[in-house]
Amino acid sequence: MKIEQGISNYEKMKNNMADVFLQYDQEEMIRKFGLTQDKNYLYICCLNRQYRISRLNGQVSWSEDAFQTEGEADYNEAMTLYDVLCCSKENCHLACEWVNVGSLSAVQGGTLAKGSDFFQDAGKYFDGKKDALALACERLKGRKVEKGDVAYELDLFPFLPVVLRFWESDEEFPASLQILVDRNILDYMHYETLMFAISHMLNRLRDEINKVLP
After folding, report:
1. Cystine design at 77: which of 73, 130, 140, 203 (Cβ 3.0–4.6 Å)?
2. Is pLDDT of 86 > 90?
3. How far is CA 201 from CA 7, 29, 142, in A?
4. Is 92 inside any structural domain?
5. Residues 104 and 42 in one domain
6. How far apart are CA 151 and CA 185, in angstroms?
7. Beta-carbon-side half-sphere exposure of residue 123 (alpha carbons within 13 Å)
């Protein structure tokens, strides 16, 4: 990553997107997604965490105590929010049909394809931690579903759920992680953004696991 004057390229891109955000119709975002808002911010929940986007400068922050304290959104968080709010299709809606994220026709061979290092590395991290992973999913207000040693439906956004399924390794097979998404998910975000969103979800789960493991 190149550093110029102490600012990474990721930070530059995030700041550029904050400026782009201000060019879009905020009232349309509020209408489309039923956002809470006031004169200074738009509010949105992502993975059981509250975010707000400044209506004045486009910056994204998050809080877990009603914004008595707050943190700056990282690249994956901010870019996901910007893309969904600014670039989702006008009539985006759920198909209510789950598909494996790697099977989406538009992403064949991409980073999120089946068997990619991305999922193998995540599977290795969660291996041997199934109880902690289940607790982490519960802390993100996940809803238990069938199949897998750990399987939960999580609200990426209140209007956009995803499913995580995990199987621990055994004598024959390595640990396996599967992400299911709604068939229409690319109506809500670009494929590149889907990578950011899933990376953010896995990072949130790792953070929750680290809170309970020694």
Report:
1. 73
2. yes
3. 25, 23, 12
4. no
5. no
6. 20
7. 22
For residue 9, give both structure tokens: 């390229």
Token code pair at residue 146: 């069938």
**How many Cβ atoms from other residues are within 10 Å of residue 133's Cβ?**
24
Residue pair 127/213 in contact by the 8 Å Cβ criterion: no
DSSP helix, strand, coil percent of the chain (3-state; round to 5): 40, 25, 35
Interior angle at CA 102, CA 99 and CA 103, nearest 5: 55
Which of 27, 55, 87 is at the close of a domain? 87
The verdict on residue 42 lying in a domain is yes
Q: Average pLDDT in the 172-197 region?
A: 92
Q: What are phi and psi of 60, to 5 degrees?
A: -110, 130
- Half-sphere exposure for 90 (CA within 13 Å, toward CB): 1
Supply the pTM of this predicted model: 0.88
Nearest to 135 by CA among 211, 46, 82: 211
Flag whether 141 is in a domain: yes
pLDDT digits (tens, 9 = 90+) for 125-175: 899 999 999 999 999 999 999 998 999 999 999 999 999 999 999 888 888
